[in-house]
Design a protein that fits this description.
Shape: elongated
Strand content: under 5%
Structural class: mainly alpha
Helix content: over 70%
Largest sheet: none
């Protein structure tokens, strides 16, 4: 999911430069929350995409925190 999300951010940035059809922001954020948070963070930094949007500055790191909590809870339950 991280690779897919990273590619989505790159594709959206490329389309933004060309003035072409864009990937909706809700799709980019949803991709981060369903398991692509690292890909979203990397995509934001590598492509310098959505780095000025407060929504993305807040929600993408929040998705990483959420996934860390989920992984810790799974580790405790299954470990």
């Amino acid at each position: 999911m991280n690779v897919v999300t990273f590619c989505l951010y790159g594709l959206d940035k490329s389309r933004a430069r060309r003035g072409a059809w864009r990937i909706p922001e809700r799709v980019l954020l949803t991709a981060a929350f369903v398991g692509g948070c690292v890909g979203a963070l990397l995509g934001m930094q590598v492509f310098r995409h959505k780095t000025r949007h407060g929504t993305f500055q807040t929600l993408v790191p929040l998705s990483c925190v959420l996934w860390c909590v989920i992984l810790v809870l799974l580790w405790r339950v299954l470990g």
